[in-house]
Structures are given as C-alpha cells and as structure tokens.
Amino acid sequence: AFKAYENDEALLTKLLDVKKKNKENFAKYVKRESGIILNTDSIFDVQVKRLHEYKRQHLNVMNILADYAYLLNDPDAPFTPKTYIFAAKAAPGYYLAKQIIKMIWAISEEIRKNPKINKKLSVVFLENYCVTLSEHLMPAADVSEQISTASKEASGTGNMKFMLNGAVTLGTMDGANVEIHDLVGEDNIYIFGKSSEEVIRLYDTAGYHPQDYYADPQIAELVDFIVSKELVQIGDPENLGRLYKELCNKDWFMTLLDIKDYIAKKEQMLADYEDRMAWAKKMLINTAKAGFFSSDRTIAEYNRDIWKL
Known about the structure:
By secondary structure, this protein is an alpha/beta fold. It is 56% helix and 9% strand. The protein contains 14 helices and six strands. The chain has helices spanning 9-34, 57-73, 95-112, 131-137, 158-164, 177-184, 196-205, 210-214, 217-225, 229-234, 237-249, 255-273, 276-289, 295-307, and strands spanning 43-48, 82-87, 121-126, 143-146, 168-171, 190-191. The protein has a six-stranded parallel sheet, with helices on both faces. Helix 1 packs across helix 13 (276-289). The mean pLDDT is 94.
C-alpha cells in the first residue's frame, strides 16, 4: 500500500523531512556519546557490520581515498558533502581486521586536520557497535554499504534493516542483496562488481592476481596512499605496510578486482542523490518492499520446506 504513494510529492517531501530529523537525532547521540560533530547536511554513507576482509571495509576506504585525492588536488572543486560512517568489531585474534580499523582511524584523523577539506568530507569510526547505536544510526542512513565479495555472504540482516529505514543499497549481488534487487528493481539499488560465478571461477582456477590490477595507475595511486607520508605520520608504519603488502600480493577477497566499478557506481549513486524527489522515491520503494523480509514469512517458509511441523 505504501508504494502507491511513490509519485506523491507531498509525501515524498515529508519522507525527506523525516530522514533529516533522524540524521539530526543521530548527530545529537554521537556528540553526546563521543564528542564528534556530524554535518547533517551531508550524505550519511554507512557501513556497519563485523570487521572482516570479506566484508571489504577496505574497499570502501579506497573510494574515500579517491575522494580525498580529488579534494587535495582542488579543495574548491564541486563536491557533495559526505560523511562516511563505520562501526564494527574485529575478532580478538584477527590481526589484519584490526589493522583495517587502524587505517580507517588514521584516514579520519588525516582528513579532520585539513580545514579546507573537512567541511566537505569526513570519516567517523564509532566505538562499541551495539543495538542501541544501530537503533539511532539505521534511521539516519542515506546509503547502505553491502559490498562483500560476491559468493561470500550467506545472508546478513543489516541490509534488510537499512532498507526498511529508507536507505538505498550499494552492493554486490551477494547474500540478501540479490533478493533486495529483485524486489525493488534496477533503478532503486546500485549493484557493482563481479558475479558470484565469476569470483568462484577465479578462486577455482587460481586466476586472480592482484598485481595485475595494481599495474593500473589509478588503482596503484589509491593503494599507495596507505603507506603515504600523510598516513604513516599518524598511523603505525609497520602495520600500514603489512596491510599494503597484503593488498598488493594476496588480496584474498578481491578488493582490487572490483574497485573501479565500485567507484564508478558510487559516483552515479551520489549524482542521483542530488535529485531529491527522485531519491525520496527510491527511499519509499525500498521501505515499501522491505515487508518481504518479515520473520513471519521466513519462518513459515522454513517450516514448509524444512521443518514440516
């Protein structure tokens, strides 16, 4: 029934007002809890989930570095303000995941200390991700990052919660993204990257070599930034160096494979965000179609197909 209002400008305007209020409420929560001040007039681009290489938080970081390099080249260049929000926990013994957290923090600090850029671009890593934080964050999100390597995600539920709250998904055809894509249609989700079949084929044939992609100057520039003097001065040179070598020599979850397509798709998404009514329609359709993920429907199907109670 909600989808019947997808062309009702009065309702779409109200939807945008609700999203703005949710962003303001979330910003108050963050300031109270951590002292960080968020720009509520920026796009809230959110990736919150367990910190793991297959979730590819570092792919998101590569795009942030592309944004930062663009603004470093010309701080006055046209640029829609963006706030990249991360929250995650890493397993105690997962060394590389902890280095990715440190890298995100170092980039956040590097951007924060640049007064010409930090009004347009900011990166926030929120501590102690938990249900209370997510209850404030999910209604405030504009973009839902669901960028795992295709074939690796069983089916997380975070993307469903973001969808219900009117965030638009940017993701691979992996996990529940496949069902979201089928529900909302091509115009209301942003899909990028190699398919599950292509990724599996590369694993099976040992056909993925990150050095081949690192040879691309655009990709090399982003990867090299990890060990640039700017980041090394803030972060730990040894740890950043290990992360850099991991990407160049192993890259188990194929970050470099999808990076250019990811950046291009995100640029398209952010350009579409400028048309506020069109974006509000995407929000409405995502919310309207989220009912498919009801636990009632899910459990009924489990019972019909598996339990047969």
